[in-house]
Structures are given as C-alpha cells and as structure tokens.
Design brief:
about 160 residues; SANT/Myb; Chromatin complexes subunit BAP18
C-alpha cells in the first residue's frame, strides 16, 4: 500500500471513530429527550433547540462536503472522457486542456453569448484535426454534428439511430 493510501486510510478511520462517538452521544441525548425517560422534564427547551440547530447545521455541512466531492468526481470523469476523445481522434493532448484550473467568475449570460458566437463562427465542414476543446464541451444544440464526418462523431451507445 502506498504512503498516500495509508495516510488516506488513517484519516478515514479517524473520521469513522469520531462519527461513532458522535452517534453514541446522540443516542444518549435521544434517550434523555424520550418522554418516557424520568429526567425528560429536567432538560430545558433551550437545550433541545440547541441540539436541533446543531443537527441541522451538521446535515447542511455534510451536504456541502458531499456536493464538493461529487463535483470533483464529475470533473475527473469529464476530463477522463475528454482525454479519451482526444486520443480516439488522434489529437495531441496538452496538460492545460485536461487539468481544470480555477476559473474567474463570469456571468452565465456572457458565457452563453460567447459560446454561441464561437459556435456560429465555426466552419460546418471540419477535418478531424480541427476539432477543438470548445467543440468537445459544446452541448448537442450548439454543435452542427451533421457537418462532421462519421469517423469524427463520438458514439455513446445510442440506439436511436443518430
């Protein structure tokens, strides 16, 4: 096992140990808040509300972390697909195209207008060497795939005849 995998495994085991401790404490708190528990009346309402707020915040934080992980995973999958498409097309790979760099914030309208202008200005008949990263990133509505030779079209296993 490599050093990086050992370190990651250690971090994951620490997280699970902390989660186990937290759920044990949460179970004890739930028992104290159970109406059948004799000490239930001794727990102030402010503490119950604080517990509820802490659990809600925990859920929101976990959702944010999960979303970041999903976004990174999708980015890695997209980059892998782009790399594969470039290799299939016989185009040279550049690290700058595959590795996602932090992008400055640009409004969606600017992106749409810029991409529509660049798509409209692309020639309809292209050679396989003329396929650009923008063409690979463009949605189906933005690209004239009819102008591409059949050898240049990517087959995603569609059975609808297109």
């Amino acid at each position: 096992m490599s050093q990086g995998n050992r370190q990651t495994s250690h971090i994951v085991s620490e997280i699970f140990a902390d989660v186990g401790t937290s759920f044990t404490l949460l179970g004890e708190l739930e028992m104290m808040l159970n109406p059948e528990y004799a000490a239930r009346n001794k727990v102030p309402e402010a503490d119950v509300q604080a517990l509820r707020a802490a659990i809600n915040k925990f859920g929101e934080d976990i959702d944010k972390i999960c979303q970041r992980i999903k976004d990174r995973t999708l980015l890695q999958i997209r980059n892998s697909m782009k790399r594969h498409a470039y290799e299939e097309a016989g185009l040279p790979l550049r690290k700058q195209q595959i590795i996602a760099a932090p992008k400055p914030t640009i409004s969606q309208e600017k992106v749409r207008s810029a991409s529509s202008v660049s798509v409209l200005s692309q020639p309809t008949a292209t050679k396989s060497a003329d396929i650009t990263l923008n063409m690979l990133n463009a949605t189906e509505q933005e690209v004239d795939v009819e102008g591409l030779a059949t050898s240049d079209k990517l087959d995603y296993g569609c059975t609808d005849g297109s």
